[in-house]
Amino acid sequence: MMMNIHKSAEDYLEAMLMIKEERGYVRSIDVADKLGVTKPSVSYATKRLRESGYITFDPAGMIVLLEPGLEIAERMYERHKLLTELLIGLGVSPETAREDACKVEHDLSVETFDAIRRHAQQYRER
Fold it and tell me: What DSSP character marks residue 24?
């Protein structure tokens, strides 16, 4: 089931997944650093994400993605990685490709992203 969720929430969940993959744990300060936002912004966002059932906190105060949050984070991260790879393949610099992928990953329809995914898969198989 696809839930309607704000772009900023998608960014937070995606950042949490990326941090978890990098470090094995997620602290609020790491999320603030990754997204370039203030600690109070992260506190507000995590409160909303917790109330919505996307995240929880473990006994040590680390952020834990719950299944619904993980699904969204993985979907956004997949989009981000594939779009970045596609743009780099078109000759865009890696830094610009990452920035642009972040801008469009939220706004693409499922239909369009699926078409991009199929195209990339066919291209890889050549």
Answer: S
